[in-house]
Design goal:
By secondary structure, this protein is an alpha+beta fold. It has helices at about 30-40, 50-60, 95-105, 190-205; strands at about 1-5, 5-10, 20-25, 110-115, 130, 135-145, 150-160, 170-175, 175-185. The chain is globular and about 60 Å long. The two termini are about 40 Å apart.
Length: about 210
């Protein structure tokens, strides 16, 4: 398709869970295309944002990251991706038998979202130790400040008995242990889900 006169491929997806597009184009067009987008969005208050904001938004929406929540040490069921794995589908795929075995076994750990009571002093970033009853029980995978929840948040792998909503553990940051609480995953619905729910509510109200 054409965007401001440039050939692009535009995909209606976003790593933040909000309304957005990924635009793929020839590298030589980057500067000029960027300026055109800024000009077109000026009246709407368009601006730049960075990796920290992206990370915060994707954690609030429960989006996993490769190398963090998804890695070679954990399986899809431990990472909370079981609903996306169909081990019994007719079409064969690489790893199918392994997935069948994993799905039938009890998982050693489970990925959860935590709020961390650091009083705004420090935010987790990932790979921090998680404690319970003076025992190391897991590790964080990613973390950030949540601008919606107004607190530090992170994802962490914990043993199943500590993954119930409201369960408390401690995250070690700079040698100090901060209380953390298991909360809903995701903490906030994506823009697409919010829009769908809003339309559904409007239809129900009208008739």
């Amino acid at each position: 398709m054409k965007l401001a006169g440039f050939d692009v491929q535009a995909t209606r997806i976003s790593y933040t869970g909000e309304l957005g597009w990924e635009i793929h184009h020839d590298r030589k067009d980057t500067g000029a295309l960027y300026q055109k987008i800024l000009e077109a969005g000026a009246e709407f208050g368009i601006g730049d944002y960075g990796a920290f904001a992206t990370n915060s938004l994707r954690l609030e929406k429960g989006f996993r990251g490769w190398g963090s929540e998804m890695n070679l040490d954990k399986n899809p069921y431990e990472a909370g991706l079981g609903p996306f794995v169909k081990p019994n589908k007719k079409t064969k795929f690489v790893g199918q038998e392994a997935c069948k075995e994993m799905s039938s076994n009890e998982q050693k750990c489970k990925l959860v979202t935590l709020t961390v009571d650091t009083h705004g002093f420090i935010d987790p970033e990932g790979n921090e130790t998680v404690w319970f009853d003076n025992q190391i029980v897991g590790n964080t995978t990613s973390g950030a400040w949540s601008y919606n929840a107004k607190t530090s948040i992170c994802m962490a792998f914990l043993p199943p008995h500590l993954t119930e909503l409201g369960s408390s553990v401690y995250v070690e940051l700079l040698g100090m242990r901060y209380k953390a609480t298991v909360v809903n995953d995701p903490m906030y619905e994506t823009e697409a889900v919010r829009t769908r729910n809003s339309l559904k509510a409007a239809l129900e109200a009208s008739g």
